[in-house]
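Standup, Tuesday
Yesterday: got the pipeline producing C-alpha coordinates again.
Today: sanity-check two examples.
Blockers: none.

Example 1:
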Amino acid sequence: MQQLDTRPLVRQVRLDVDLLAHVEPETRSDKIAFGFVKALRFFADRFFANRYGHRAVVLETVAAVPGMVGGLLQHLTALRYIRDDEGWIRTLLDEAENERMHLMTFIQIAQPNRFERMLIAIAQMLFYNFYFWLYLFAPRTAHRVVGYFEEEAVISYTQYLAEVEAGRHENVPAPQIAIDYWQLPQSARLSDVIIAVRADEAEHRDVNHGMVAELDNRRSA
Protein backbone atom coordinates (compact mmCIF):
# COMPACT_ATOMS: atom_id res chain seq x y z
CA MET A 1 0.00 0.00 0.00
CA GLN A 2 1.34 3.44 -0.93
CA GLN A 3 2.07 5.64 2.07
CA LEU A 4 0.37 9.03 2.07
CA ASP A 5 2.47 12.18 2.36
CA THR A 6 1.09 13.88 5.49
CA ARG A 7 3.43 16.85 5.41
CA PRO A 8 1.69 20.25 5.20
CA LEU A 9 1.32 21.78 1.77
CA VAL A 10 3.84 24.51 1.00
CA ARG A 11 2.22 27.93 0.78
CA GLN A 12 3.61 31.12 -0.71
CA VAL A 13 3.01 34.55 0.78
CA ARG A 14 0.53 36.71 -1.12
CA LEU A 15 1.47 40.38 -1.21
CA ASP A 16 -1.33 41.62 -3.46
CA VAL A 17 -4.17 41.54 -0.92
CA ASP A 18 -6.15 44.64 0.03
CA LEU A 19 -5.64 44.99 3.78
CA LEU A 20 -8.28 47.73 4.09
CA ALA A 21 -11.13 45.85 2.41
CA HIS A 22 -14.37 45.92 4.40
CA VAL A 23 -17.94 44.87 3.64
CA GLU A 24 -20.50 47.18 5.19
CA PRO A 25 -23.30 45.27 6.95
CA GLU A 26 -26.54 45.87 5.08
CA THR A 27 -28.96 43.03 5.73
CA ARG A 28 -30.19 41.82 9.10
CA SER A 29 -27.95 38.77 8.71
CA ASP A 30 -24.94 41.01 8.10
CA LYS A 31 -25.66 43.12 11.17
CA ILE A 32 -26.05 40.08 13.41
CA ALA A 33 -22.74 38.66 12.14
CA PHE A 34 -20.98 42.01 12.50
CA GLY A 35 -22.28 42.56 16.03
CA PHE A 36 -21.30 39.05 17.10
CA VAL A 37 -17.74 39.46 15.81
CA LYS A 38 -17.37 42.91 17.40
CA ALA A 39 -18.48 41.43 20.74
CA LEU A 40 -15.82 38.73 20.43
CA ARG A 41 -13.25 41.41 19.59
CA PHE A 42 -14.23 43.42 22.69
CA PHE A 43 -13.67 40.48 25.03
CA ALA A 44 -10.44 39.46 23.28
CA ASP A 45 -9.06 42.99 23.66
CA ARG A 46 -9.94 43.07 27.36
CA PHE A 47 -8.53 39.62 28.09
CA PHE A 48 -5.32 39.67 26.05
CA ALA A 49 -4.58 43.42 25.80
CA ASN A 50 -1.23 43.65 23.98
CA ARG A 51 -0.30 39.96 24.37
CA TYR A 52 -0.68 39.41 20.65
CA GLY A 53 1.14 36.10 20.48
CA HIS A 54 -1.09 34.52 23.11
CA ARG A 55 -4.16 36.09 21.51
CA ALA A 56 -3.16 34.46 18.21
CA VAL A 57 -2.82 31.03 19.84
CA VAL A 58 -6.34 31.11 21.29
CA LEU A 59 -8.06 32.78 18.35
CA GLU A 60 -6.41 30.59 15.70
CA THR A 61 -7.82 27.44 17.30
CA VAL A 62 -11.26 29.03 16.87
CA ALA A 63 -10.46 30.29 13.36
CA ALA A 64 -9.62 26.75 12.25
CA VAL A 65 -13.14 25.52 13.04
CA PRO A 66 -15.34 27.21 10.38
CA GLY A 67 -13.53 25.80 7.35
CA MET A 68 -13.76 22.24 8.65
CA VAL A 69 -17.43 22.61 9.62
CA GLY A 70 -18.31 24.30 6.33
CA GLY A 71 -16.40 21.71 4.32
CA LEU A 72 -18.16 18.86 6.13
CA LEU A 73 -21.65 20.29 5.66
CA GLN A 74 -20.98 21.24 2.04
CA HIS A 75 -19.77 17.67 1.47
CA LEU A 76 -22.96 16.23 2.97
CA THR A 77 -25.11 18.65 0.98
CA ALA A 78 -23.39 17.68 -2.26
CA LEU A 79 -23.99 14.00 -1.48
CA ARG A 80 -27.60 14.55 -0.45
CA TYR A 81 -28.55 16.50 -3.56
CA ILE A 82 -26.15 14.58 -5.83
CA ARG A 83 -24.61 17.74 -7.24
CA ASP A 84 -21.20 19.27 -7.75
CA ASP A 85 -19.87 21.39 -4.88
CA GLU A 86 -18.26 23.93 -7.28
CA GLY A 87 -14.98 23.78 -5.39
CA TRP A 88 -16.38 24.91 -2.04
CA ILE A 89 -15.35 21.79 -0.12
CA ARG A 90 -11.67 21.98 -1.05
CA THR A 91 -11.58 25.74 -0.50
CA LEU A 92 -13.05 25.44 3.00
CA LEU A 93 -10.86 22.50 4.00
CA ASP A 94 -7.77 24.36 2.75
CA GLU A 95 -8.84 27.29 4.91
CA ALA A 96 -9.10 25.02 7.96
CA GLU A 97 -5.65 23.55 7.27
CA ASN A 98 -4.14 26.99 6.79
CA GLU A 99 -5.58 28.27 10.07
CA ARG A 100 -4.25 25.17 11.84
CA MET A 101 -0.78 25.98 10.54
CA HIS A 102 -1.16 29.48 11.97
CA LEU A 103 -1.87 27.89 15.33
CA MET A 104 1.07 25.48 15.11
CA THR A 105 3.34 28.41 14.28
CA PHE A 106 2.24 30.69 17.11
CA ILE A 107 2.33 27.89 19.67
CA GLN A 108 6.10 27.79 19.11
CA ILE A 109 6.35 31.57 19.40
CA ALA A 110 4.06 32.24 22.39
CA GLN A 111 4.51 28.98 24.34
CA PRO A 112 1.01 28.92 25.94
CA ASN A 113 0.74 27.89 29.58
CA ARG A 114 -1.64 25.28 31.01
CA PHE A 115 -4.42 27.78 31.59
CA GLU A 116 -4.26 29.00 28.01
CA ARG A 117 -4.25 25.44 26.72
CA MET A 118 -7.37 24.76 28.78
CA LEU A 119 -8.90 27.94 27.38
CA ILE A 120 -8.13 26.69 23.87
CA ALA A 121 -10.01 23.45 24.53
CA ILE A 122 -13.02 25.23 26.01
CA ALA A 123 -13.15 27.84 23.25
CA GLN A 124 -12.97 25.14 20.58
CA MET A 125 -15.70 23.05 22.18
CA LEU A 126 -18.09 25.98 22.53
CA PHE A 127 -17.39 27.55 19.15
CA TYR A 128 -17.54 24.28 17.21
CA ASN A 129 -21.03 23.49 18.46
CA PHE A 130 -22.22 27.06 17.93
CA TYR A 131 -20.83 27.29 14.42
CA PHE A 132 -22.07 23.85 13.39
CA TRP A 133 -25.68 24.77 14.13
CA LEU A 134 -25.27 28.24 12.67
CA TYR A 135 -23.93 26.82 9.40
CA LEU A 136 -26.58 24.11 9.32
CA PHE A 137 -29.48 26.59 9.50
CA ALA A 138 -27.93 29.88 8.30
CA PRO A 139 -24.88 29.28 6.06
CA ARG A 140 -25.03 32.84 4.71
CA THR A 141 -24.69 34.28 8.20
CA ALA A 142 -21.98 31.74 9.02
CA HIS A 143 -19.82 32.83 6.10
CA ARG A 144 -20.41 36.48 6.93
CA VAL A 145 -19.27 35.81 10.51
CA VAL A 146 -16.01 34.39 9.16
CA GLY A 147 -15.61 37.30 6.77
CA TYR A 148 -15.90 39.81 9.60
CA PHE A 149 -13.80 37.62 11.89
CA GLU A 150 -11.01 37.70 9.31
CA GLU A 151 -11.36 41.47 8.93
CA GLU A 152 -10.63 41.75 12.65
CA ALA A 153 -7.76 39.28 12.31
CA VAL A 154 -6.14 41.50 9.66
CA ILE A 155 -6.46 44.48 12.03
CA SER A 156 -4.98 42.51 14.95
CA TYR A 157 -2.01 41.25 12.95
CA THR A 158 -1.38 44.74 11.59
CA GLN A 159 -1.24 46.01 15.18
CA TYR A 160 0.99 43.09 16.16
CA LEU A 161 3.37 43.88 13.28
CA ALA A 162 3.51 47.54 14.34
CA GLU A 163 4.43 46.50 17.89
CA VAL A 164 7.21 44.25 16.63
CA GLU A 165 8.59 46.84 14.24
CA ALA A 166 8.53 49.45 17.02
CA GLY A 167 10.61 47.16 19.23
CA ARG A 168 7.93 46.61 21.87
CA HIS A 169 7.88 42.89 21.03
CA GLU A 170 11.08 41.01 20.24
CA ASN A 171 11.43 40.17 16.56
CA VAL A 172 12.48 36.59 17.23
CA PRO A 173 13.60 34.17 14.50
CA ALA A 174 10.74 32.55 12.59
CA PRO A 175 10.00 28.94 13.62
CA GLN A 176 11.15 26.35 11.12
CA ILE A 177 7.57 25.20 10.58
CA ALA A 178 6.71 28.70 9.32
CA ILE A 179 9.80 28.88 7.10
CA ASP A 180 8.88 25.58 5.46
CA TYR A 181 5.18 26.34 5.10
CA TRP A 182 5.42 29.84 3.63
CA GLN A 183 8.72 29.27 1.82
CA LEU A 184 10.41 31.99 3.85
CA PRO A 185 14.19 32.49 3.86
CA GLN A 186 16.13 30.87 6.70
CA SER A 187 16.83 34.37 8.05
CA ALA A 188 13.10 35.14 8.41
CA ARG A 189 11.90 36.78 11.61
CA LEU A 190 8.60 37.06 13.47
CA SER A 191 7.66 40.12 11.40
CA ASP A 192 7.88 38.03 8.23
CA VAL A 193 5.60 35.41 9.76
CA ILE A 194 3.05 38.02 10.76
CA ILE A 195 3.02 39.43 7.21
CA ALA A 196 2.42 35.94 5.81
CA VAL A 197 -0.35 35.14 8.29
CA ARG A 198 -2.02 38.50 7.73
CA ALA A 199 -2.08 37.88 3.98
CA ASP A 200 -3.73 34.51 4.58
CA GLU A 201 -6.39 36.10 6.78
CA ALA A 202 -7.13 38.73 4.14
CA GLU A 203 -7.57 35.97 1.57
CA HIS A 204 -9.99 34.05 3.84
CA ARG A 205 -11.90 37.29 4.42
CA ASP A 206 -12.37 37.83 0.71
CA VAL A 207 -13.29 34.19 0.05
CA ASN A 208 -15.99 34.08 2.73
CA HIS A 209 -17.50 37.42 1.78
CA GLY A 210 -17.46 36.14 -1.80
CA MET A 211 -19.32 32.99 -0.75
CA VAL A 212 -22.02 35.18 0.80
CA ALA A 213 -22.37 36.99 -2.52
CA GLU A 214 -22.63 33.65 -4.33
CA LEU A 215 -25.35 32.44 -1.95
CA ASP A 216 -27.25 35.66 -2.58
CA ASN A 217 -26.95 35.12 -6.33
CA ARG A 218 -28.25 31.57 -6.03
CA ARG A 219 -31.30 32.75 -4.11
CA SER A 220 -32.09 35.48 -6.59
CA ALA A 221 -31.62 33.25 -9.65
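Example 2:
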Amino acid sequence: MTDERTIDQLLLSLKENTDALEHIYHRLRRELFSYAYSILQDTDAANDAVSETFLRLYHAVSRYRPKGQGRAYLYGICRRVSLEMCREKQRQQPTEALPETPASPDFDSRLDVQALLKRLDIEERQVIVLHYFHDMTFKEIARVTDTPEGTVKWRHTKALEKCRVTAVH
Protein backbone atom coordinates (compact mmCIF):
# COMPACT_ATOMS: atom_id res chain seq x y z
CA MET A 1 0.00 0.00 0.00
CA THR A 2 1.24 3.47 -0.83
CA ASP A 3 1.74 6.21 1.78
CA GLU A 4 -0.89 8.96 1.48
CA ARG A 5 1.61 11.75 2.13
CA THR A 6 3.85 10.50 -0.67
CA ILE A 7 0.95 10.54 -3.13
CA ASP A 8 -0.07 14.02 -1.91
CA GLN A 9 3.49 15.29 -2.43
CA LEU A 10 3.63 13.78 -5.92
CA LEU A 11 0.27 15.31 -6.82
CA LEU A 12 1.44 18.71 -5.64
CA SER A 13 4.71 18.41 -7.54
CA LEU A 14 2.80 17.39 -10.67
CA LYS A 15 1.71 21.00 -11.03
CA GLU A 16 5.31 21.98 -11.82
CA ASN A 17 6.91 18.64 -12.74
CA THR A 18 5.15 16.29 -15.16
CA ASP A 19 7.64 13.50 -14.27
CA ALA A 20 5.65 13.09 -11.05
CA LEU A 21 2.81 11.64 -13.14
CA GLU A 22 5.07 8.74 -14.12
CA HIS A 23 5.94 8.11 -10.46
CA ILE A 24 2.28 8.13 -9.46
CA TYR A 25 1.45 5.83 -12.36
CA HIS A 26 4.09 3.28 -11.37
CA ARG A 27 3.01 3.35 -7.72
CA LEU A 28 -0.75 2.98 -8.24
CA ARG A 29 -1.47 1.53 -11.70
CA ARG A 30 -1.87 -2.05 -10.48
CA GLU A 31 -4.16 -1.04 -7.63
CA LEU A 32 -6.25 1.13 -9.92
CA PHE A 33 -6.38 -1.60 -12.57
CA SER A 34 -7.66 -4.09 -10.01
CA TYR A 35 -10.27 -1.62 -8.81
CA ALA A 36 -11.40 -0.76 -12.35
CA TYR A 37 -11.54 -4.47 -13.21
CA SER A 38 -13.77 -5.12 -10.18
CA ILE A 39 -16.29 -2.72 -11.69
CA LEU A 40 -15.89 -3.43 -15.40
CA GLN A 41 -15.08 -7.16 -15.36
CA ASP A 42 -13.04 -6.70 -18.55
CA THR A 43 -9.24 -6.51 -18.81
CA ASP A 44 -9.10 -4.17 -21.81
CA ALA A 45 -11.73 -1.87 -20.38
CA ALA A 46 -9.91 -1.77 -17.01
CA ASN A 47 -6.67 -0.82 -18.78
CA ASP A 48 -8.55 1.91 -20.66
CA ALA A 49 -10.07 3.13 -17.39
CA VAL A 50 -6.63 3.43 -15.77
CA SER A 51 -5.31 5.35 -18.77
CA GLU A 52 -8.31 7.68 -18.70
CA THR A 53 -7.87 8.11 -14.93
CA PHE A 54 -4.32 9.38 -15.39
CA LEU A 55 -5.34 11.58 -18.30
CA ARG A 56 -8.06 13.18 -16.17
CA LEU A 57 -5.65 13.51 -13.27
CA TYR A 58 -3.21 15.40 -15.46
CA HIS A 59 -5.92 17.83 -16.58
CA ALA A 60 -7.42 18.27 -13.11
CA VAL A 61 -4.29 18.44 -10.97
CA SER A 62 -4.50 22.23 -10.66
CA ARG A 63 -7.78 21.77 -8.76
CA TYR A 64 -6.34 19.23 -6.30
CA ARG A 65 -6.06 20.43 -2.72
CA PRO A 66 -3.86 18.28 -0.44
CA LYS A 67 -5.72 16.79 2.50
CA GLY A 68 -3.71 13.62 2.95
CA GLN A 69 -6.16 11.82 0.67
CA GLY A 70 -4.26 11.65 -2.62
CA ARG A 71 -4.81 7.93 -3.05
CA ALA A 72 -8.54 8.30 -2.38
CA TYR A 73 -8.62 11.17 -4.88
CA LEU A 74 -7.19 8.89 -7.59
CA TYR A 75 -9.55 6.06 -6.68
CA GLY A 76 -12.43 8.51 -6.96
CA ILE A 77 -11.39 9.48 -10.49
CA CYS A 78 -10.97 5.82 -11.40
CA ARG A 79 -14.40 5.02 -9.95
CA ARG A 80 -16.11 7.73 -12.00
CA VAL A 81 -14.30 6.66 -15.19
CA SER A 82 -15.09 2.99 -14.59
CA LEU A 83 -18.76 3.62 -13.86
CA GLU A 84 -19.06 5.77 -17.00
CA MET A 85 -17.49 2.97 -19.02
CA CYS A 86 -19.73 0.40 -17.32
CA ARG A 87 -22.84 2.35 -18.27
CA GLU A 88 -21.58 2.61 -21.85
CA LYS A 89 -20.78 -1.11 -21.89
CA GLN A 90 -24.27 -1.95 -20.64
CA ARG A 91 -25.78 0.09 -23.45
CA GLN A 92 -23.74 -1.82 -26.02
CA GLN A 93 -24.23 -5.28 -24.39
CA PRO A 94 -20.98 -6.94 -25.55
CA THR A 95 -20.15 -10.50 -24.54
CA GLU A 96 -16.75 -11.55 -23.26
CA ALA A 97 -15.49 -15.11 -23.47
CA LEU A 98 -13.28 -16.66 -20.81
CA PRO A 99 -9.67 -17.23 -21.78
CA GLU A 100 -9.10 -20.61 -23.44
CA THR A 101 -5.94 -21.48 -21.52
CA PRO A 102 -5.13 -20.76 -17.89
CA ALA A 103 -2.60 -18.00 -17.38
CA SER A 104 -1.22 -19.45 -14.14
CA PRO A 105 -1.58 -22.43 -11.79
CA ASP A 106 -4.00 -20.58 -9.50
CA PHE A 107 -6.32 -19.79 -12.42
CA ASP A 108 -9.18 -21.92 -11.02
CA SER A 109 -9.13 -20.16 -7.66
CA ARG A 110 -9.14 -16.78 -9.41
CA LEU A 111 -12.15 -17.92 -11.43
CA ASP A 112 -13.91 -18.88 -8.19
CA VAL A 113 -13.26 -15.42 -6.74
CA GLN A 114 -14.36 -13.76 -9.97
CA ALA A 115 -17.55 -15.85 -10.00
CA LEU A 116 -18.34 -14.77 -6.43
CA LEU A 117 -17.62 -11.12 -7.24
CA LYS A 118 -19.87 -11.27 -10.32
CA ARG A 119 -22.79 -12.25 -8.08
CA LEU A 120 -22.48 -8.93 -6.26
CA ASP A 121 -23.83 -5.66 -7.56
CA ILE A 122 -21.32 -2.94 -8.45
CA GLU A 123 -21.51 -1.11 -5.11
CA GLU A 124 -21.03 -4.31 -3.09
CA ARG A 125 -18.19 -5.46 -5.35
CA GLN A 126 -16.40 -2.13 -4.92
CA VAL A 127 -16.55 -2.40 -1.13
CA ILE A 128 -15.24 -5.98 -1.13
CA VAL A 129 -12.42 -5.27 -3.57
CA LEU A 130 -11.30 -2.08 -1.85
CA HIS A 131 -11.50 -3.61 1.62
CA TYR A 132 -9.95 -7.03 1.00
CA PHE A 133 -7.71 -6.51 -2.02
CA HIS A 134 -6.57 -2.93 -1.39
CA ASP A 135 -6.63 -2.97 2.43
CA MET A 136 -8.79 0.14 2.69
CA THR A 137 -10.75 0.92 5.83
CA PHE A 138 -14.48 1.54 5.65
CA LYS A 139 -13.77 5.23 6.23
CA GLU A 140 -11.39 5.32 3.24
CA ILE A 141 -13.90 3.44 1.09
CA ALA A 142 -16.56 5.96 2.09
CA ARG A 143 -14.29 8.76 0.86
CA VAL A 144 -13.51 7.00 -2.42
CA THR A 145 -17.11 6.14 -3.21
CA ASP A 146 -18.57 9.35 -1.78
CA THR A 147 -20.90 7.26 0.37
CA PRO A 148 -21.66 7.44 4.11
CA GLU A 149 -19.51 5.06 6.15
CA GLY A 150 -22.62 3.33 7.52
CA THR A 151 -23.75 2.54 3.98
CA VAL A 152 -20.32 1.12 3.17
CA LYS A 153 -20.53 -1.16 6.23
CA TRP A 154 -24.05 -2.24 5.27
CA ARG A 155 -22.94 -3.07 1.70
CA HIS A 156 -20.01 -5.04 3.12
CA THR A 157 -22.31 -7.10 5.33
CA LYS A 158 -24.77 -7.65 2.49
CA ALA A 159 -21.98 -8.72 0.11
CA LEU A 160 -20.55 -11.18 2.63
CA GLU A 161 -23.99 -12.70 3.14
CA LYS A 162 -24.35 -13.17 -0.62
CA CYS A 163 -20.92 -14.78 -0.81
CA ARG A 164 -21.73 -17.16 2.08
CA VAL A 165 -25.01 -18.21 0.47
CA THR A 166 -23.24 -18.80 -2.86
CA ALA A 167 -20.44 -20.81 -1.20
CA VAL A 168 -22.95 -23.08 0.57
CA HIS A 169 -24.78 -23.95 -2.64
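Quick observation on example 2: The two ends are 35 Å apart (CA to CA). Residues 94-99, 101-105 have pLDDT under 50 and may be disordered.
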